[in-house]
Amino acid sequence: MTETLWAPWRMEFILSEKTEGCVFCAAFAAEGEERRARLVLARRENALALMNRYPYTHGHIMVVPRRHVSRLEDLDPRERADLFELTVDAQTVLKLAPAPQGLNLGMNLGKAAGAGIEDHIHVHLVPRWAGDTNFMPVLADVRVMPETLDATWNTLNRGFGSLEDRG
């Protein structure tokens, strides 16, 4: 028996109008409700954490330096420190909820390495669970997400809020 699995977010990505400019720079500029619309979780002086709109698994966070650069060596020491301090905070939040069994952490530097946005570097934090990889991405170009982006944002945003409450 054949079952149908719907992944409507994928068609949204395929058909969406590609905007001019950098989505990360726009996320830094966002204020108020636009921050949520852009899936921003935390913003610090030199770094930003936001959810990936087209994630590999739910809870996929990206941490981005404020300055639009394509190479780590172009960041000054304070910018690098802020980028990785926020990366550690994002890992802390992910460990609490959605509480993965593992975590992929990485950067795709350059188009050949798989960078979708190659001119503004960013760190990916991808939560992982035993058995979360199956035949769907390989055979059907479909990822199965266990909850909506909005529900995941609510959970992760509460986690980042508790970090800020610690001072």
Notes on the protein architecture:
The protein is an alpha+beta fold. The chain has helices at 8-15, 23-29, 33-37, 77-96, 135-140, 149-165; strands at 40-43, 47-51, 61-65, 102-106, 123-128. The chain has one domain (22-165): HIT-like (HIT family, subunit A), CATH 3.30.428. 38% of the residues lie in helices and 15% in strands. Strands 1-2-3-5-4 form a 5-stranded antiparallel beta sheet, with helices on both faces. A hairpin with a 3-residue loop joins β1 (40-43) and β2. α4 crosses α6 (149-165). The chain starts with 7 loop residues before the first helix and ends with a helix.
Mean pLDDT: 85
CATH class: Alpha Beta
Number of DSSP helices? 6
Strand content: 5-15%
Number of domains: 1
Which structural class do the helices and strands define? alpha+beta
Helix percent reads 25-40%
Largest sheet: 5 strands, antiparallel
Flag low-confidence runs: none
